[in-house]
Structure of Alanine racemase:
Amino acid sequence: MRQATVYIDREALQYNLNRVKQLAPTAKIVSMVKANAYGHGVKDCLAALQDSDAFGVACLQEALEIRELGFQQPITLIEGIFSADEMQIAIDHEIECLVHHQQQLDWLRAHKDAYIAKNLKVWVKLNSGMNRLGFKVTEIIDVIHTLKAEGFTCVLVMHFANADADNHPLNDQQRAQFLQVKEACAPIMASCCNSAAIYKWPELNFDFVRPGIMLYGASPFADKTIHDLDLKPVMTFTAEIIALNTIQAGESVGYGSTFVADNDIELAIVSIGYGDGYPRAFPKQNYVSINGQQAPLIGRVAMDMIAIDTTGLNVQIGAKVELWGKTRLVDDVAETNGTIGYELLCRLSARPVRKTN
Ligand SMILES: *Cc1c(COP(=O)(O)O)cnc(C)c1O
């Protein structure tokens, strides 16, 4: 059988969740499991994240999947609902909504009694300068005061645009606006920390933190590795050597014959390609890991196969190749691909076989 495997280490997931607890001991943890748990598979991750206080997802479908799997924790829709008809479904399944524009407030008010009767919180989003979602600082104080007067329990929410950057001027503006609104609406619960912010600003952890990438053992910072952050990689993405070849100087490999050997080399063909979600374009030289040794990719990534230079590595057909995981970190592969670990994890296809411990 073709081997292209996504292995999920649930102990690593629990370890990383415990890291969040150490870093934010007084906050409740909303584990972000949107996009199929950042590509890890919600079904394989939720049990290991059982000790979370809540889950965060991007849409109703993702929330309903959690309920279908039998998990009863609070769930927050971090972008709220997308149409009026979703409100009743959300209430029926005890799914909490965020509100970031006036229409969502109208949809919420149309179901006010049912929403409040289920003790669901309303997450009210401040736009403090990221300029994606939310009410501006000039509007939100009224919005919150009115919601509170109507009997809703509110959480003030904000998202940093540059939590991964040191000394970005927008960080100070966003923090100041958040604290200003929090003060003006006191008492109110508050939440503004993703993974990067959890590490950087413990004083902003407040009532709920919203870790995502750190749970999965990838780094939110370009200049810090998971070892610096004491996190463990959760996903190991592997394939197998399916053919061996030797070529002479001047011969080429793969589509477009983009790689031409300078010397005689030994190469191996590995059962992985962009059809599995492995990236095709590598602006920088990428590597895979075999038995702890690095082997460079050569030629183009195809839909189902890649070629690697195994000169001197003495590898066999059937040998396991780590595309990313505990030895070759996803963040390092992402760097050679000109992207971030988040994207590589999320964009895996359905083809690789899924396994867990
Ligand atoms: C995805 C998301 C997070 C988690 O961000 P990470 O950088 O993965 O920790 C937190 N809050 C919101 C609103 C999000 O959309």
Summary: The domain at 10-216 is CATH 3.20.20.10 (TIM Barrel). The chain has 13 helices and 18 strands. The CA atoms of residues 49 and 246 lie 47 Å apart. The chain has two domains: 10-216, 235-356.
